Amino acid sequence: MPLPEPALGLVIHFAFLWRHEQEAGREDAAKDHPCAIVLLCRQAGADTIVTVAPLTHRPPPDPAVAIDVPPAVKRHLGLDAQQSWIICDEVNEFAWPGFDLRSVPGSRERYHHGFLPPGLFRQVGARIAALKRSGHGRTIRRD
């Protein structure tokens, strides 16, 4: 199966580099995560730049920086039933498809889980934008 076209709200499987990993000097992520594409920048004749926000089981230290993922959305995406959050104050940015795109566990040919519902996607985008405006958002470039 070919790589998917990047699209807003698409949840890909990605080696997400956390801020604490980068600050410890790591260049490679310790773990792969489902990540929602939250921003796309397409320019004629140039790479498509993608920004992703991670989904994680780890409760956020500050609930204001995350959005709870409803169980129905997790089922829709084919993810486990454990509680998860989309973290909105840490994002990774890379040129599509990059080096850190991974196949979905259990599949060698599929790189995405599906799309976030539009309402949840809008909520995530609004939270990321608010955190960026307040100086609490951080983007890690992954190239």
Structure characterization notes:
With 143 residues, the chain is of the alpha+beta class. The protein has one domain: SH3 type barrels (Roll). Helices cover 20% and strands 32% of the residues. It is built from 3 helices and 9 strands; from the N terminus they run βαβββαββββαβ. Strands 1, 2, 3, 4, 5, 6, 7, 8 and 9 form a 9-stranded mixed sheet that branches. A hairpin with a 7-residue loop joins strand 2 and strand 3. The longest helix has 16 residues. The radius of gyration is 14 Å and the shape is globular. The two termini are 24 Å apart. The relative contact order is 0.24. The model has no long low-confidence stretch (mean pLDDT 95).
Q: From the alpha-carbon coordinates, what is the Rg to the nearest angstrom?
A: 14 Å
| Unreliable sequence segments | none
Structure class: alpha+beta
CATH class: Mainly Beta
Q: Provide the helix percentage.
A: 10-25%
Major beta-sheet overview: 9 strands, mixed
List how many beta strands DSSP finds: 9
Q: Label the overall shape.
A: globular
User: Count of helices?
Assistant: 3
What is the residue-averaged pLDDT?
95
Assigned CATH architecture: Roll
Number of domains: 1
Measure the end-to-end span: 24 Å
User: What proportion strand?
Assistant: 25-35%
What sequence of helices (H) and strands (E) makes up the elements? EHEEEHEEEEHE
CATH topology descriptor: SH3 type barrels
